[in-house]
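[Q] Does anyone have a clean structure-token version of this?
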Amino acid sequence: MRTFLKPLLCFSFLLLLAGQAKSADFVRLFQCDGPSSSNLKDVGALEVQRSTDLKDFRQPRLLLRFKNDSKQVFTITSASWFYFPNPLSPSDVVVTRFNAQNTVPLQNPPSLQFEMRSNGAFQPLSGKLGGITFRTCGAQLTSTYYWTKSSMTSTDAFACPDLGKPAGCPGVGPN
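[A] Here you go.
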């Protein structure tokens, strides 16, 4: 009996430590405010965040923050961008699409697509969520989630150009 007690105590201690492990912290990349539709009258803001843990840098999440302080969390599964109106020619408008899955099974909506318009320097301007417009998007902390000539870092970027994934563009996934 005594031979089983020591391993059982060690195993219990490990389980206790595992239960106290800190979850990853997230920082906001940008936030969109002021939905223009009464369909989203309860939504206070939409945020795109990334983990502070370098190995999870390219696995961002999207949050819908509601006015009652609740939120829905979505894992971004893909992100791509293109120049508007001509995807092949740099312009003053960049459109980025984020596809995301709800982190809570069977919760509605199960997934969503968010589309953001930015200026030519990739600074957020406005966004659309299923046809509902967010009048302002901003508070951007970094633009390294785009794979561009000015920010080609495989540990940071998770949004690749829409027209083909260039060599080296990492996309969404673990580092």
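[Q] Thanks! Anything notable?
[A] Residues 25-161 form one domain.
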